């Protein structure tokens, strides 16, 4: 476990702390001919070796460094084909983590992976999944008749309300699991403060009622989910 944690720390330091923005720009422009991609890989190698502080791991770290170079290079050439630049970024990070995991547990990879899955809290995973997109869809269906009667005179980010609802439900579920019910009240209060100015300016009673019902429904679904999880 400690080997994986140190490798993960080395990755975070190398990818997010010791990689200046100008390096990233230069790599994107010059790709394989950029000198900074080689500096970047070398930094990853050195940081990992310093954190592990054991020459017995040099071969493993070298494999990680080479794989890091290949993955980063593939991302540089693949990124222009993606409309959303965040997609290749997250794919890149996922592949790095998989390599780190495989290298850290290569001696008992299969047994460790099986044990890891056996220890997963599937009830918690189900609760987390439910309060995300399924709850958003359920709320959309429940509020469908009301939403048709709401006239919006302002623009907002695409799907912003849906993602705000998902995040708030995740927070509520987390607070219930932790037994911090008072934090839910603070979350409701904070959301009310942010919404107050918009509702005041719109002077739209239907919109106010719609948002209030949506908020209470969102919190209610998360609270019910949390209670079911901690009870069973």
Automatic annotation (TrEMBL):
InterPro entries cross-referenced by the UniProt entry: Phage_phiKZ_Orf197 (IPR021737)
Keywords recorded for this protein, A-Z: Membrane, Transmembrane, Transmembrane helix
Pfam family, one: DUF3307
Annotated transmembrane regions: 36-53, 59-77, 89-107, 122-143, 170-190, 210-230
Keyword Transmembrane helix: yes
Stated name of the protein: DUF3307 domain-containing protein
Taxonomy of the source species: Bacteria, Pseudomonadati, Bacteroidota, Flavobacteriia, Flavobacteriales
């Amino acid at each position: 476990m400690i080997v994986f944690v140190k490798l993960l720390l080395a990755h975070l330091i190398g990818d997010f702390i010791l990689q200046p923005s100008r390096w990233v720009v230069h790599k994107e422009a010059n790709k394989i001919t950029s000198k900074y991609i080689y500096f970047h890989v070398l930094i990853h190698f050195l940081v990992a070796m310093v954190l592990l502080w054991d020459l017995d791991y040099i071969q493993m770290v070298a494999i990680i460094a080479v794989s890091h170079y290949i993955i980063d290079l593939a991302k540089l050439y693949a990124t222009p084909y993606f409309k959303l630049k965040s997609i290749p970024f997250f794919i890149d990070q996922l592949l790095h983590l998989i390599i780190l995991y495989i290298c850290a547990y290569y001696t008992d990879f299969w047994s460790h992976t099986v044990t890891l899955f056996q220890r997963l809290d599937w009830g918690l995973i189900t609760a987390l999944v439910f309060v995300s997109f399924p709850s958003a869809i359920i709320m959309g269906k429940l509020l469908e008749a009301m939403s048709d009667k709401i006239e919006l005179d302002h623009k907002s980010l695409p799907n912003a309300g849906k993602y705000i609802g998902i995040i708030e439900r995740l927070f509520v579920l987390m607070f219930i699991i932790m037994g911090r019910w008072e934090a839910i009240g603070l979350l409701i209060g904070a959301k009310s403060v942010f919404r107050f100015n918009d509702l005041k300016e719109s002077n739209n009673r239907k919109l106010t009622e719609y948002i209030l019902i949506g908020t209470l429904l969102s919190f209610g679904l998360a609270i019910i989910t949390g209670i079911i999880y901690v009870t069973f």
